[in-house]
């Protein structure tokens, strides 16, 4: 059984070349979810109102698919979902696409991470996250070096690293590799394949039905930055990082104050 209850309106979506906002997408943690990791009833109602007006709604998250489903089900039925910062995409036409890290990049990233005092390395393999045993170098009994190549391997690598100087040095080291590095918390670095971001995942999810100029997106942290900069209208919640607020087109209320309800009211007025 699919973990999501999807909107039943996908077949009526048509190509749109104007710049009217037709699509709304949101991050989960720190954005759609409040501090209790719940969706406000006002946001659930706003999303339903948005979709009833003939617009599309989607999730753009760093979480794995099951984590997204737990957060929104059964109240919200998205038209598309971008998981793992773009490494897994469920498109508006229902098709799924995984974009894993090449095996050579996995080896390079793990080598870089292991050179610094990381508290934990998390390996997301075929959509499921596992802690890496740093003594054996295995996760869930698997040696990453023995994984098959692209298409069957690792979707995302993450590291918890609390020392600010070491974290900055690790980011510099990862920047030299053919991967994309971002963060969803102060001490939490996330690595996907080269060019794999929420923004590229969103473009894939829309399946050429809508341009990015027709999208409004909202987020709170570093892994939302490329997305907020690429869409027609980028929102930052009030609790977002200063950097994300600086690149956003508009600011809205905090994740604790039902931000989607305010955005929908803004866009449909």
TrEMBL record:
<dbReference type="InterPro" id="IPR006379">
    <property type="entry name" value="HAD-SF_hydro_IIB"/>
</dbReference>
<dbReference type="InterPro" id="IPR023214">
    <property type="entry name" value="HAD_sf"/>
</dbReference>
<dbReference type="GO" id="GO:0000287">
    <property type="term" value="F:magnesium ion binding"/>
</dbReference>
<dbReference type="GO" id="GO:0005829">
    <property type="term" value="C:cytosol"/>
</dbReference>
<dbReference type="InterPro" id="IPR036412">
    <property type="entry name" value="HAD-like_sf"/>
</dbReference>
<dbReference type="Pfam" id="PF08282">
    <property type="entry name" value="Hydrolase_3"/>
</dbReference>
<protein>
    <submittedName>
        <fullName>HAD-IIB family hydrolase</fullName>
    </submittedName>
</protein>
<keyword id="KW-0378">Hydrolase</keyword>
<dbReference type="GO" id="GO:0016791">
    <property type="term" value="F:phosphatase activity"/>
</dbReference>
């Amino acid at each position: 059984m699919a973990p999501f209850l999807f909107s039943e309106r996908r077949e009526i979506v048509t190509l749109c070349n104007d710049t009217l906002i037709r699509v709304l997408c949101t991050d989960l943690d720190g954005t759609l979810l409040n501090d209790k990791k719940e969706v406000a009833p006002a946001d659930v109602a706003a999303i339903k109102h948005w979709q009833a007006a003939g617009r599309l709604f989607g999730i753009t998250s760093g979480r794995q698919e099951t984590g997204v489903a737990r957060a929104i089900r059964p109240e919200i039925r998205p038209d598309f979902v971008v998981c793992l910062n773009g490494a897994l995409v469920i498109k508006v036409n229902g098709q799924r696409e995984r974009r894993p890290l090449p095996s050579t990049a996995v080896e390079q990233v793990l080598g870089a991470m292991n050179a610094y005092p990381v508290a934990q390395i998390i390996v997301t393999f075929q959509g499921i996250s596992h802690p890496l045993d740093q003594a054996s170098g295995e996760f869930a009994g698997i040696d990453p070096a023995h994984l098959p190549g692209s298409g069957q391997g690792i979707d995302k690598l993450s590291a918890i690293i609390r020392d600010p100087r070491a974290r900055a040095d690790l980011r510099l080291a990862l920047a030299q590799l053919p991967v994309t590095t971002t963060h969803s918390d102060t001490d939490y670095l996330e690595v996907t394949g080269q060019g794999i971001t929420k923004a590229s995942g969103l473009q894939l999810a829309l399946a050429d039905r809508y341009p990015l100029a027709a999208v409004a997106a909202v987020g709170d942290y570093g892994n939302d930055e490329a997305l907020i900069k690429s869409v027609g209208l980028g929102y930052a919640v009030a609790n977002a990082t200063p950097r994300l607020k600086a690149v956003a087109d508009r600011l809205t209320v905090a994740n604790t104050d039902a931000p989607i309800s305010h955005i929908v009211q803004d866009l449909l007025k």
